[in-house]
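Page 37, continued from 36.
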């Protein structure tokens, strides 16, 4: 995980590098970011839990009661987007 050039200057000489795990971590995080950004993750396989329309309405109402209108709007938009993705007409 010691990728930054500064680390080479401050790493004690008695330390040994066994692997470049920082490269693996950075690659995994970059892939995760890309998939979230392009909307391919999370998909249906990673979202097995469903919320009923009544529960979603209750949730949105509670957010609005708490004065969290932006959060309610964002949640509603996300729910609508999920409904659109999972609709059989779009398969």
């Amino acid at each position: 995980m010691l990728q930054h050039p500064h680390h080479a200057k401050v790493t004690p000489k008695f330390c040994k590098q066994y692997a470049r795990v920082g490269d693996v971590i950075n690659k995994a995080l970059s892939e995760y970011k890309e998939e979230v950004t392009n909307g391919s993750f999370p998909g249906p396989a990673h979202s097995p839990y469903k919320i009923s329309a009544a529960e979603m309405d209750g949730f949105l109402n509670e957010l609005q009661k708490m004065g969290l209108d932006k959060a309610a709007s964002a949640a509603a938009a996300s729910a609508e987007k999920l409904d659109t993705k999972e609709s059989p007409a779009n398969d």
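The CA atoms of residues 77 and 83 lie 10 Å apart. Flag for discussion at group meeting. The chain has a mean pLDDT of 83.
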